[in-house]
Amino acid sequence: MNYMASITDFFRSPKWVPNLLLGAVCMLIPIVGPLVLIGWVVGPLFRSRDPVNFDRFPDFDFSDFGKLLERGVWPFLVNLVAGIIVVPLMWIVLALPVGLLVASTAATNAERNSEAMGLLALCSIGLVVVLIATAACMLTLIIRPLMLRAAITQDFGQAFNFRFIKDFILRTWVEQLLSIFFLVVAGIVLLIIGMFAICLGTYLVIPLLTFAQWHLERQIYDLYIARGGEPVTISSKLAAEPPALQPS
Fold this sequence. Notes:
The chain has one domain. Helix content is 71%, strand content 0%. The protein has helices spanning 5-8, 16-27, 32-46, 65-110, 114-153, 162-194, 201-226. α2 (16-27) crosses α7 (201-226), α3 runs parallel beside α7 and α5 crosses α6 (162-194). The longest helix has 46 residues, at 65-110.
């Protein structure tokens, strides 16, 4: 895994400046914009099992807006539906320990032991933070292979292959967690840098982070295959770039 390459490879394209600017403009379009941005990234990354030549990464071009939107809509829909199903289950699992912590704090308060109550409150807050972070990581571990499979197959139904999800998590969970941590840290750093840019600072960061996220997905997918995982059939919709997006 080359985590820094997920960011630096963006700048290998001779036209990385217009790509970044157009990506930022795309993010100004509500709902649809992020899907188009995802569609631009996943096409070159997953249309072939061959290594990606980032020096000739296709330029971002609004002239093929519809095709890019079509490519990005499937991972978005899968993410949306999976979140609607999985997130409530996660909160149900968290409800019991959080409820016990609240009850314990209330009992200590009833005893009017301020020192013990303060210590218990701190421990409770720390435990709740750990539980929420753990639940968020588990949620991401489940949703990422769903989105990956949806992007490669360009299909909603084929994304929900639970045998693949289980196998993918078992073979790559360490790298997935490390990539999540990297994206969080990189996102914070880039957002701080972006705050110093005029107007579009934050919007300039999002295309770069989107690229980094899917770049890491490709790396993890390659690692999954190298460890004996089953390759996903590539959709013909990703097989070749449309004329407007072919590298110059």
